[in-house]
Amino acid sequence: MTSAEIAQDNRDEPLSVIIAARNEENYIGDCLRSVLAQDDRAGIVETIVAANACTDRTIEAAQAFLPDFEARGWTLKVIDVPEPGKPNALNAGDDAASSNARVYLDADIRLDPHMLGQLRQALSPDRAVYVTGTLAVTRAKSWITRQYARLWIELPFVKGGAVGAGFFAVNAAGRARWDAFPAIISDDTFARLQFTPDERVEVPARYHWPMVEGFTNLVRVRRRQDEGVRELLRLYPGIADREAKASPTRAELIGLAMRKPVPFLTYAMVHVTVRLRNSGTEWTRGR
């Protein structure tokens, strides 16, 4: 039986989509609409919004979609997680999920309509797999973020595929690679590095991922990302051996600087500024 036939047979099994949301009332609506807009190959979908320590109307905004999910024959669960921290939200979502196939989705991301159907097919093997979509960076409002993004998408890490920034899925065998999400900064990287490169799959459907706006926010988020990587290396020695994505060579950097001088300078300015100050631990979207 082919993987497509297996996926067809498994369409009656729920696919659990877990959305960690902290003060996302302005974004959760578009995210949930993109889930509802999935084509029929998505099969049965169970969506769980884990709203952690929200001080806005994220919960109410998500609950407004309950009739729409019910009309499609799908389940939407909105749970209030009082403890702050994204790992707490992810673990609460895992506890509420009924399927072993899990999709983890940030609340500010939108999915193309073919995404969940393609994920379902890619998750069908019995062996452990990690699946994500094709990353599309949303056009930023600020000039500085647009320039930064033009360089970022050319980096080997991104062009190598299966980035999984804010969006990834695992099958039952894949989810068995770790227990609860640990209380760390880089939950996405932690999950991706549970898998070797040949276990990671990127499907053609796109997911639309926004970068933070403005120089100060780019520095804050980049600083936190770097701290997250250092934390992973400190707590899980050897985990980086599974990365298998090379840093840009000197020749590649020179080539980028010549082809995209303004984006390169913007990226370099953020990179240098990050290293001028100590990192922080506060989670930020930069909004």
From TrEMBL:
Transmembrane segments: none annotated. Keywords: Transferase. Gene3D superfamilies: Spore Coat Polysaccharide Biosynthesis Protein SpsA, Chain A. Coiled coil: none annotated. Residues 16-150 form the Glycosyltransferase 2-like domain. InterPro entries: Glyco_trans_2-like (IPR001173), Nucleotide-diphossugar_trans (IPR029044). GO terms for molecular function: transferase activity. PANTHER family: GLYCOSYLTRANSFERASE (PTHR43630:SF2), POLY-BETA-1,6-N-ACETYL-D-GLUCOSAMINE SYNTHASE (PTHR43630). Belongs to the glycosyltransferase 2 family. WaaE/KdtX subfamily. This is Glycosyl transferase family 2. It comes from Lutimaribacter saemankumensis.
